[in-house]
Amino acid sequence: MVKPITTLLFDFDGTLLDTNELIIRSYQHVLDKHYPGKYKRSDILPFLGPPLMEAFSKVDPQRVEEFTEEYRTWNKEMHDELASEFDGVSKTMQLLKAAGLKMAIVSTKRKDMVLRGIELLDVDGVFDVIIGIDDVTKAKPDPEPILLALERLGASADEALMIGDNYHDIEGGKNAGVRTAGVAWSAKGEAFLQTFHPDFMLQHISDLLHIVKGEEI
What we know:
By secondary structure, this protein is an alpha/beta fold. The chain has helices at about 20-35, 40-45, 50-55, 65-80, 90-100, 110-120, 145-155, 165-175, 190-195, 205-210; strands at about 5-10, 15-20, 85, 100-105, 130, 160-165, 180-185, 200. The protein is globular.
């Protein structure tokens, strides 16, 4: 028998907070400076999701730290101006919390920047646990960050759902033994996410209110 979902694990960027333009322009800032005209917007889309060091290692393995620092400096300066919540996120998070769900964020960005992003949402006290890239040795799709979140929540994998906008989230969830949900508002597109066969595909964040009740969406 399939157990009810009691635990929700969320990716952050591109899932709850719309940072797509911020991330793309942060990469453009670095890449246009060092490789003028080489990287188009479409070339940058695959960089959304993986850790910065993984993305920049594909550009130039010898300059990863340099590029990462330049990225973070510009990203911090422009963060609050370019980031905003996706429709209905704060209200839905509050309703899920009120319904008794255990909730965590499992991100591939640093914890301090996740916390800064949370300040742009109306979600005080909603998330019981926040896992950033600096909390783990391996990022999604390795199961480590998801398993760590479950451990800190005191939750079991068979009652958890991982929600995200990238294949790292879907694959990571599968590797950790939890159910998975993609979001149709992913910058990479719903069709791309469907190729990784998530258990659910959210058309709007409020679909979760039905999923946790065992209702069809």
